[in-house]
Amino acid sequence: MAKNGKKYRKALEALGGRTAFPLREGIAKLKSVAYARFDESVTVDVNLGIDASKGDQVVRGGIVLPHGTGKASRVLVFAKGEYAEQAKAAGADYVGTDDLIKKIDEGWFDFEYAVATPDLMGLVGKIAKVLGPLGLLPNKKLGTVTFEVASVVQDLKKGLVFFRNDKQGLVHFLCGKVSFSEEMLYDNMVAFLKALAAAKPGASKGQFIKKVVITSTMGPGVPVEVSEL
Question: Of 15, 85, 101, 212, which has the fewest Cβ atoms less than 10 A away?
Answer without folding.
Answer: 85
